[in-house]
Amino acid sequence: MQTETLHPFEASGLGVGPFRLLYVASFPSPSMAEQNPEAYNNALRALPREVPLGICNHCGMALMHNFVCQSTDGKKFVVGADCAHKLGDKSLGNKVKIEVLRRQRADRRAKVEAQRAARRAKWLIDNADKIKAQEAARVLMAEQAKVAAEAVTAKWAFVLPVLDAQNGNFCASMAQGIREGNPPRGRAVDIIGSIYAKSHGRSGSKAYTTAITEFESKIEPDGDFT
After folding, report:
1. Which of 53, 54, 67, 127 has the most CB atoms within 10 Å of its CB?
2. Pick from 91, 124, 157: which residue ends a domain?
3. Cα separation of 115 and 117, whole Å?
4. Of residues 35 and 43, which shows the higher confidence score?
5. pLDDT, tens digit, for every residue of 95-127?
6. 88 CB neighbour count, 10 Å cutoff
C-alpha cells in the first residue's frame, strides 16, 4: 500500500498542494532609509498588503525578499527563498533562483548607489565653504555682466530707432546685439555712424555733419569709435 507524502507546507498548515509562486515582494534596502528616507517610505507604502510580509510562514525566518505563494485551495502565504524551493516544481524552483539572483543584483546596485550618494554628500559638506564662495562669485559675475549689458544698451539706445527703420540683415543684427548688451565694434561703428547721420540729412550737409559729431560724442568716451 502506497502512502502519500505530506508536503512540508501542508504540514505547516499553509493549505493543500500543489503550490505555486505568485510574485516576490522585497523590502527596500536599509541603505535607502539612510540616504533617501522619503524614497524608502514610498517603497514601503508600495508593498502589497494582501498578506503580511517579513516572516516566513513555514520556518519563521525574518525576510527581506518575500515569496508570495498560493495553495490549491486558495490560501496565500509568504516564504523565503530557501523554503520556496520546497514548492516541489522544478520550473518554479528555477523562477525562484532567477528572482533571487535578480534581487541580489538590485541590492548590489542599490548599495553602490548609496555609497556614491554618501561620498557625494560628504564632499558637499567638506567643500561647503568653497561651493558657497564659488556660487557667490558666479552670482556677482552674472550681476556685473547684466549691469555692463544694460550700460551698453543704454549708451547705444539713441541709434536703435534709426537701425530699426532700415531694411537689411546688418541693421537688424546690430540692433539685436545692442539690445543684448553687445556693442558694435570696428568697421561696424563707422557704418552705423554713417547710417545715423544720413537719417538726419544727405551726406556732406550741415545736418549730416552735426549728426556725425553727435554720434561720435556719444560713443567716443568708451573708445568704441575707431
Report:
1. 67
2. 124
3. 5
4. 43
5. 667 777 777 787 778 778 777 877 888 888 888
6. 14
Containing structural domain, residue 110 = 8-124
Tell me if 134 is assigned to some domain: no
Q: Are strands 20-26 and 76-79 parallel, antiparallel or unpaired?
A: unpaired
Residue type, position 178, single letter: I
User: Do 89 and 182 belong together in one domain?
Assistant: no
Reply yes or no on whether the pLDDT at 89 is more than 70: no
| 113 within domain boundaries | yes
Banded model confidence at residue 160, pLDDT cuts 50, 70, 90: very high
57-75 pLDDT, tens digit each: 988 889 888 888 888 888 9
Q: CA–CA distance from 98 to each of 11, 22, 24, 37, 94 (Å)?
A: 27, 14, 11, 29, 6
d(CA 226, CA 204): 20
Cβ burial of 12 (10 Å; 0-12, 13-18, 19+) is middle
Cis upstream peptide for 18 (omega within 30°): yes
Q: Which DSSP symbol is given to 161?
A: H
Q: How far apart are CA 89 and CA 57, in angstroms?
A: 19
* Number of structural domains found in the chain: 2
* One domain for residues 151 and 109: no
